[in-house]
Amino acid sequence: MLSVIIPAYNVEKYIKRCIDSVLNQSLKKIEIIIIDDGSKDKTSDICLEISTKNSNIKYKKVENSGCSAARNLGILMSTNKYIAFLDSDDWVDQDMYEEMIKVAEKNDSDIVICGFKKLNEEKKLLSTVKILEKKNKDDYIDCKTEWFSSPCNKIYKRDLILKNNIKFLTNVYTGEDMFFNFKSLFFSKKISSINEAYYNYFMNESSVSNNYKNRTDIYIVIDELVKFYKENNVYQENINKVRECFKYHGIIYPFDVLQKMSENKVKDWKRFYLKIKEEIGKFKYLETIDIKICYYYRIFRLKMMWLKRYKKMLMAK
User: Fold this and answer.
1) What average pLDDT does this structure show over 92-115?
2) Quick one: which H or E segment has residue 135?
3) pLDDT of residue 188
4) If you ran DSSP here, which 8-state letter would residue 164 be given?
């Protein structure tokens, strides 16, 4: 009924919790596919031991190629009607997949989406993200929301993914999830949602998604999104979605990262700032008054922060 794909790389501290949360699901017809992306710690030993004890687990170790390549391989190895993705430092509530499959079968949905919880190292709840049911498919294509980008709070019909050759981009480390969902939701006919937070997202400060060095990859993703809509002859109908993606993921989020870099005194923040400005300049064809205001406001806010810091330094002398 369901194939759960888990890419794993150097997660010896968390991988057992992740796998156990799937083994303990109330839904029993689950195929677990673990793609070990060349781990160098004890992740491989843990996965191998668990897989030998559970016949429904497929374990494969490959050379390190990144999470996207691991997920793409997992899709090819899957055999069930539905596919789910699970990050190796996260875990799922016991009834998550059963409830999502019920909705998928009842509504003949290509995709089912649920909410998620954000937790820290001590499993302290930081926030909860839920999703209300939408009136039509187009309303779910909303990259401003926290629930849109991740593939892990969703299940997909395997046929939807394979027939439309939907894959994760392998040349980026930020935004590949979002692009995968833009394509999946575009090709889907029916999307459903459950207003329950079944997925547990561990806020791991050292994970790839929190790595400053990967943030400019988002501009590659935006460019790919433009190409995708043009190739399917629907660019003009979806230009506002592209602009929305550019505004939130190409301007607001990178400038938020810049502010954090500056506050944390990360030495490369000036180089990152210049790179962001250069990349944003390539998308002038997406500019609107709203986007311009957003961009210059972010620059102003950043410079005001620098000015305040400079003033404090002068006063301290």
Assistant:
1) 98
2) none
3) 97
4) T
Gap between the Cα atoms of 137 and 182, Å rounded: 12
Closest CA to 155 of 189, 184, 121, 196: 184
List, in sequence order, every beta strand (DSSP E) within 153-285: 154-157, 191-202
> Exposed, middle or buried, 285 (CB in 10 Å: 0-12/13-18/19+)?
exposed
Q: Are strands 57-61 and 125-129 parallel, antiparallel or unpaired?
A: unpaired
Alpha-carbon span 315 to 317, nearest angstrom: 5
**pTM for the model:** 0.92
pLDDT by residue (tens digit) across 267-305?
A: 777 888 899 999 999 999 999 999 999 999 999 988 887
Residue 262 has pLDDT above 80, yes or no: no
Q: How far apart are CA 277 and CA 274, in angstroms?
A: 5
- Of 227, 99, 190, 96, the C-alpha closest to 85 is 96
pLDDT per residue as tens digits for the range 129-167: 999 999 899 999 999 999 999 999 999 999 999 999 999
Strand ranges (E), 132-220: 154-157, 191-202
How many residues are present in the chain?
317
Angle between helical axes of 218-231 and 239-247 (0-180°, round to 10)? 180
207 band by pLDDT with thresholds 50, 70 and 90: very low
User: Is the model more confident about 67 or about 135?
Assistant: 67
Two tokens, residue 185: 């939701």
Residue 256 CA to residue 298 CA, distance in Å, equals 9
CA distances to 201, 202, 283, 292 from 245, in Å: 23, 25, 12, 14
* pLDDT value of residue 121: 84
What residue ranges define each of the domains in the chain, with the CATH number in brackets?
2-208 (3.90.550.10), 211-316 (no CATH)
Residues 6+ apart with CB under 8 A from 59: 34, 36, 47, 48, 51
C-alpha neighbours within 13 Å on the C-beta side of residue 18: 26
| DSSP letter (8 states) at residue 40 | -
